[in-house]
Specification:
The structure is a single chain. The chain has 96 residues and is mainly alpha-helical. The chain has one domain. The protein contains 4 helices and no strands.
């Protein structure tokens, strides 16, 4: 478990990674990042409000949020896979 300050620093770092895609990403990466960023903002706020200050909680809530959206038919399967891959890559880069 992280402190609230550490968790907010994690959220800020992940947000910077999404922002970097805006500057350097391809059109596909921009689309995926924008989609993912919408879920990320909501989930990060939920974690903060619920005082769930861990990367694991953030990851679990992100995957649940994406799973719910995808079960409602949001995005094509290939795009769903690409969104999951970008999320995993983004979170993994924080732990690297």
């Amino acid at each position: 478990m992280l402190t609230s300050d550490q968790f907010i620093a994690l959220v800020d770092e992940l947000q910077l990674q999404f922002d970097a895609i805006v500057e350097t990403g391809t059109d596909d990466e921009l689309f995926l990042s924008g989609y993912l960023n919408g879920h990320f903002s909501l989930v990060a706020s939920q974690c903060i409000n619920q005082q769930l200050f861990s990367a694991q909680s953030l990851d679990e809530k992100m995957k649940a949020s994406l799973g719910e959206a995808f079960s409602k038919g949001e995005l094509e399967p290939a795009d769903q896979d690409a969104v999951h891959a970008l999320w995993d890559k983004t979170l993994l880069s924080f732990h690297a």
